Amino acid sequence: xxxxxxxxxxxxxxxxxxxxxxxxxxxxxxxxxxxxxxxxxxxxxxxxxxxxxxxxxxxxxxxxxxxxxxxxxxxxxxxxxxxxxxxxxxxxxxxxxxxxxxxxxxxxxxxxxxxxxxxxxxxxxxxxxxxxxxxxxxxxxxxxxxxxxxxxxxxxxxxxxxxxxxxxxxxxxxxxxxxxxxxxxxxxxxxxxxxxxxxxxxxxxxxxxxxxxxxxxxxxxxxxxxx
Length: 227
Known about the structure:
Layout: H1 6-12, E1 20-22, E2 42-44, E3 63-65, E4 85-87, E5 109-111, H2 124-132, E6 142-145, E7 165-168, H3 179-182, E8 188-189, H4 198-202, H5 205-225
Parallel strand pairs: 1-2, 2-3, 3-4, 4-5, 5-6, 6-7, 7-8
C-alpha cells in the first residue's frame, strides 16, 4: 500500500519518469503531492478517499480515473487540455458544478455512472464548446455516460443538440413527461428508465449511430480533399 507521504517521495525519485501511475486502493486523501509531475499521461487513483481534485498541473495527462472516491463535485478542477478520458463512477457526485469547464479539445469519454446526479444543466457549457470545435467532425465523438443516477429532466438539451455527442442515461428516473425531450436527442440511449415509451426512442439508436458515422466519414473526406 502506498502511503500519502510516499507520493512526495515519488516525485523526487531519481528513476526514469513513468508515464502511467496506478495508485488504487491506498486510502489516499490528496493528490496534490504529484502536482506538476509532467510526464504522467495516465493516472488511476480509483478506490481511495479523495474528496476534491487539486490543480494537478499535469500537462500531458490524457486518461484520469477517479472512480470509487467520495467526490461530491468537480468544482475548481484544472485538468489538462490533453484530457481524453475522465471516469468518476461509483462516487458521491450529486452536483456537476465544474463539469462545464472541462477541457474539450480532445475529450472523448466522460463517464459518471452510479452517482447521485439529479441536475445535468451544468453540462451545457461543455456541450456548447464541443459543438463549436472545428475538429469534432474528424475526431472521435464525445461519449457521455450517466447510467444509474437520479436524473428526471432533460431540459438542458434543445432541438439543436450536437449529433456528434452520444449520451447514455440507463437506469435513471426519466419518465413519460420527458418523452418529448427524449425524441429530440440525435444520438442517445435511454434503456431501463421504467417507461414503456422509451423503447420508441431506443430503437432509433442503431440507425442514428450508423448515420452519424457515415456523415462524419463524408465530412472528413470532403475536408481532406480540399487540402
